[in-house]
Design a protein that fits this description.
Residues 14-252 form the DAHP synthetase I/KDSA domain. This is 3-deoxy-7-phosphoheptulonate synthase. Keywords: Transferase. The chain has helices at residues 38-48, 74-87, 101-107, 121-127, 144-156, 182-191, 200-204, 210-219, 246-262, and strands spanning 13-14, 20-21, 27-31, 54-56, 91-94, 110-113, 134-137, 162-166, 196-198, 224-228. It has 263 residues and is α/β, with parallel strands linked by helices. It has a single domain (13-262), classed as TIM Barrel. An 8-stranded parallel beta barrel has the order 3-4-5-6-7-8-9-10, surrounded by 6 helices. A two-stranded antiparallel ribbon has the order 1-2. Helix 1 (38-48) runs parallel beside helix 2 and helix 4 (121-127) crosses helix 5. It binds phosphoenolpyruvate and manganese (II) ion. The site of manganese (II) ion has 5 residues, from loops.
Length: 263
């Protein structure tokens, strides 16, 4: 189902009446790793309207340590929904469990499956029955075939609105958090008709590398980017080292324009 039989076939995934991923314009999703407060989300929306087209922010966080902040949960969903209503920007947030799907689907525009859940097959099947687009992130060490088959779970259960996200894979070097696999971006565009976006933040793990990786991703044919940013990057409750300031985010998006028009 997700495989490409016709070379020119390309799915467009609609986020709302105005916005879609996979058509001519690249789509930039920006926001914090974790939703922390209403003021944080409103500031981002206000300062980046015009630069970004959608907001991200986790309210259920898959933290490595069970003692680390696990996210605001339902209070965070309310924050996302209010910021979205006030700004007109659609929101993307991670769903970690089947029982979270219904509430999230009623309040947000796109459901993210994080790397750690890419092969949570019951979650994928349940998302196949939902009328909401799904942003499926590549597993920490998933092959391209495993990634495609994970998308197939969602599509074969009835939801064709899947966007693939390359976010870096594990390797031996820990200078960067993960290794951004740009070859996979190109391969996925050849092998499937689904839109492909790139998350340079979780790939790099270091804010000074994110601009270059973003430009490379767009040059490689990515349909968009999802990037972490924060009004006070060093104060981020999670992933502070990779958070961009809001001016840096706006500047980065500006630098993509000539590349996006050239590809
Ligand atoms: C995230 O985007 O918030 C996240 C946890 O990313 P990943 O699942 O790619 O690690
Ligand atoms: Mn993060």
């Amino acid at each position: 189902l997700v495989g490409k039989s016709d070379l020119n076939k390309k799915s467009v995934v609609r986020l709302n009446e105005r916005l879609s991923i996979g058509d001519r314009d690249i789509l930039i999703i920006g926001g914090p790793c974790t939703v922390e407060s209403q003021a944080q989300m409103d500031t981002i929306a206000q300062q980046l309207t015009g630069s970004i087209q959608a907001l991200r922010g986790g309210v259920y966080k898959p933290r490595t340590s069970p003692y680390a902040f696990q996210g605001m949960g339902t209070n965070g969903i309310e924050i996302l929904a209010r910021t979205s209503r006030a700004s007109g920007l659609p929101v993307v947030t991670e769903v970690m469990a089947i029982q979270q799907i219904e509430t999230l689907a009623n309040q947000v525009d796109m459901l993210q499956v994080g790397s750690r859940n890419m092969q949570n097959f019951d979650l994928l099947k349940a998302l196949g029955e939902v009328d909401k687009p799904v942003l499926l992130k590549r597993g920490l060490a998933a092959t391209i075939e495993e990634f495609i088959m994970a998308a197939e779970y969602i599509v074969s259960h009835g939801n064709p609105n899947v966007v693939l996200c390359e976010r870096g894979i594990r390797s031996f070097d820990n200078y960067t958090r993960n290794v951004l696999d740009l070859g996979a971006v190109s391969a996925l565009k050849h092998l499937t008709h689904l839109p492909v976006i790139v998350d340079p933040s979780h790939a790099a793990g270091r804010r000074e590398l994110i601009g270059d990786l973003s430009r490379a991703a767009i040059a490689c044919g990515a349909d968009g980017l999802i990037i972490e940013c924060h009004p006070e990057p060093d104060q981020s409750v999670s992933d502070a080292q990779q958070a961009l300031s809001l001016p840096a985010m706006a500047q980065l998006v500006e630098s993509l324009r000539p590349i996006a028009t050239a590809v």
